[in-house]
Design a protein that fits this description.
alpha+beta, 11 helices
């Protein structure tokens, strides 16, 4: 008889192949992922998939990508096609442009509702009615106020949902397929990172990340996500202390096309630090690209959840924490963790950037 883990791995592998082949059916994938969570007993993730399929109850807080969806308020005619045409003709002679009125809506509908709205948009009546006088026809027509949401806003929700589902499928498959190996690697990174980072005063931020991963409180998850981002800021300030605004040995958007390394350029500072520590060539480029990818993923998620006043999903925090620890592990194992006080030409040590 097939073990639950084997069945889940096979389902996830099929979904991963579908994602990579570009022929994903989002609704069916949500169902399969819900089944994976069901057979593995992943109750938290199961609830999220069920809510996305069926819709979110009023008692449940919405995720960030479903909150504050923007639309416009306008008046439409209610007298049939001929009345609508007459109104459009009247508008063509108008000399004053009416101001656009914006509105926001939270989306609780399930995946079927969103898929439908992503095709044609969604118009919602407000209940307000009025009449309008058409001067060229010398008659009045009935009008109604509606909130109009374009298909684009729902397509944006689907894009965000697609990304979240792919991350779940990819990460879960790796965990189930290579779990024992990953556990060894993760423990090795954790031990090395926590030892080194504690010596330079970063133990508190790592404690916040670790406690957030082990907590059932969404506020702790948010705190962990903030710590994942802040640790890049603080580490850059600690490791890079050269006072110049640009780093001349890597290209960038600074003066003369060089890399900016001011106080606000956290990732650039860490990239320049790695370069100074002889992490050059393909490995240097790879680590800099990974830092940018992970940092901006964290930063975007924090920004969206903050604007929507919504909590960050736990599986997103776990992904961010793994990425953060992996990069910190690369830094602490490949460098001496000694700050760069004044940078020099790294080629002096025999390394040249490829």
């Amino acid at each position: 008889m097939c073990k639950p883990q084997d069945e889940a791995t096979n389902l996830l592998k099929a979904d991963l192949d579908a994602f990579c082949g570009g022929n994903i059916d989002l609704k069916q994938t949500l169902r399969r992922c819900a089944h994976v969570c069901q057979i593995l007993g992943w109750h938290e993730q199961l609830t999220w998939f069920q809510n996305e399929l069926r819709g979110y109850p009023n008692s449940v807080e919405l995720p960030f990508y479903r909150r504050g969806i923007k639309g416009t308020t306008r008046w439409i005619t209610t007298g049939g096609l001929s009345t609508t045409i007459a109104s459009v003709v009247e508008d063509s002679y108008a000399t004053e442009e009416k101001p656009v009125m914006y509105i926001e809506m939270d989306i609780r509908g399930g995946i079927d509702w969103i898929l439908s709205a992503a095709q044609s948009g969604y118009i919602q009546g407000t209940g307000k009615k009025s009449s309008r006088y058409l001067s060229f026809q010398k008659t009045s027509i009935e009008t109604a106020e509606v909130n109009d949401y374009s298909a684009d806003v729902f397509q944006t929700i689907l894009t965000e949902l697609d990304n979240l589902v792919f991350n779940f499928v990819s990460n879960s498959y790796v965990i189930l397929r290579y779990g024992d190996t990953l556990q060894d690697v993760w423990q090795a990174y954790r031990t090395k990172v926590e030892e080194q980072m504690a010596t330079i005063g970063f133990a508190t931020k790592l404690d916040t990340i670790r406690n957030g991963l082990n907590s059932s409180n969404p506020q702790d998850w948010r705190a962990a996500m903030w710590s994942c981002r802040d640790i890049f800021h603080d580490l850059a300030a600690y490791l890079w202390r050269d006072q110049r605004d640009t780093y001349e040995y890597l290209p960038g958007k600074g003066a003369d096309g060089k890399l900016r390394v001011t106080e606000s350029d956290y990732l650039n500072r860490l990239g320049a630090y790695l370069h100074q520590k002889s992490i050059v060539g393909e490995m240097g480029a790879y680590l800099r690209a990974e830092m940018e990818r992970i940092y901006h993923s964290i930063d975007t998620l924090i920004d969206l959840t903050s604007k929507a006043h919504s909590e960050v999903p736990l599986f997103a925090v776990r992904t961010a924490a793994i990425g953060t620890y992996t990069l910190l592990g690369e830094i602490v194992t490949r460098t001496d963790m000694q700050p760069v006080m004044e940078y020099c030409n790294p080629s002096a040590s025999g390394n040249v950037e490829q």
